[in-house]
C-alpha cells in the first residue's frame, strides 16, 4: 500500500555519502509507489565545526525529488517549530537518518514532537572518534524513536546497548549505483592523468585518522617490489594533511603516491574506481562503509580490515581480502595481490546481488 513518507537528514544542497544515501533511498521508495519528501537542514553544521572546505554540492539538484530545507541543528526554537510542521503533514512514516551524536538533540526533539511513526536509520550511533557525551546524546535520540534499521551488525549491537528491547531490522548498505556506468580503464586513467600501465591501489573517501591512511602508507613502503605500482589517495582531508605528507616523505614513497586530496564530486567518482585495480580500506575502527558499495558497483576487489561490519560484506578471498587491523597484515595482503593478481570478479558479481535498494526499503518499512 502506498504511504506518505518523510526522510529527515542530509540532502541536496548538502553533499556527501549520507546525502547520497538519503536521495537514493527516496528514489527507490518513489519507484515502489510511495509519496516521499526529504527534509534537510537550513544549518547543518556551524562553519567552525565543519572540518572540510564546504558542506555544499556544486552539482545540479537531483531530479524528481522533493527536498525542503527546514532544520537548524543548533536552534531549539526551530526544533519545536519543525516538530509541529511535521505533525501537520500527517505522514505515515518518518525516517530519521542518524550518523552523529551532535545531531541527537535536534533530531531527538523533532522525533518526539512529530507524533508520527518513526524509524531511526542508523549509519553510526557512536562515532569512530569518541567525544564526551556521545552515549548520552545517542540515548536521547534513540529513546524518541519507535524502531530502528541498522546498516551492520555492529551498529545493531550499539543500539541494543543504548536502548535494550527496541525493535531493530538489519540490512547491509546497498550498492551505490548512482555514480554512472563504468568507463574503460584507459579512459579513466586519461581523465585522472595516471599512467594506465601502472598497477593502481586506491584509497578513496574523506580522510580521517580512524581510516588508517598511515597504516596504508607504512604497508605500501614495506613492499620490496613497488616498481610500476602507484597508490592513489583520493578525498578531502578531514584531518591534519601535512602529517600524512610528512610520513610519505619520511618513508621515501612520496613520488609513488598520487595525492588527489580534494572532495571528489559524484561525476568524477567512476573514473577513480574504473582506473583502480584494488580498493584499500585499512580502517582502525568502522561500522560499515559506502566505499565498499561503490567498489561492488564497479566490480573492483577490496582490501579491508576486520573491524566493525567491514568483514561482514567483504568475504576474505572471495571478493578481496579481510585482514587483521595492522600495517603488517595490510602489507601481506598487498604483497599477495601484487604478486599473484587473483581474479575476484566472479565472487564480486555473486556477492553484490545481496545489496539492493529494494531490500533496504523493505528494512525501513518493516514495522
Describe the structure concisely.
With 367 residues, this protein is α/β, with parallel strands linked by helices.
How would you characterize the overall build of this protein?
The strands form two sheets. The chain has a seven-stranded parallel β-sheet, with helices on both faces. Strands 10-9-8-11-12-13 form a six-stranded parallel β-sheet, sandwiched between helices. Helix 11 links the parallel strand 12 (302-305) and strand 13 (320-323). 38% of the residues lie in helices and 18% in strands. Helix 3 runs parallel beside helix 4. The mean pLDDT is 94. It starts with a strand and ends with a helix. The longest helix has 15 residues, at 17-31. The protein is built from 14 helices and 13 strands. It is globular and about 65 Å long. It has helices at residues 17-31, 76-89, 104-113, 134-143, 153-162, 185-192, 213-222, 241-251, 266-275, 290-297, 310-313, 327-340, 345-351, 357-364, and strands spanning 4-8, 35-43, 67-72, 93-98, 118-122, 147-150, 167-170, 199-204, 229-234, 257-260, 278-281, 302-305, 320-323. It is an alpha/beta fold.
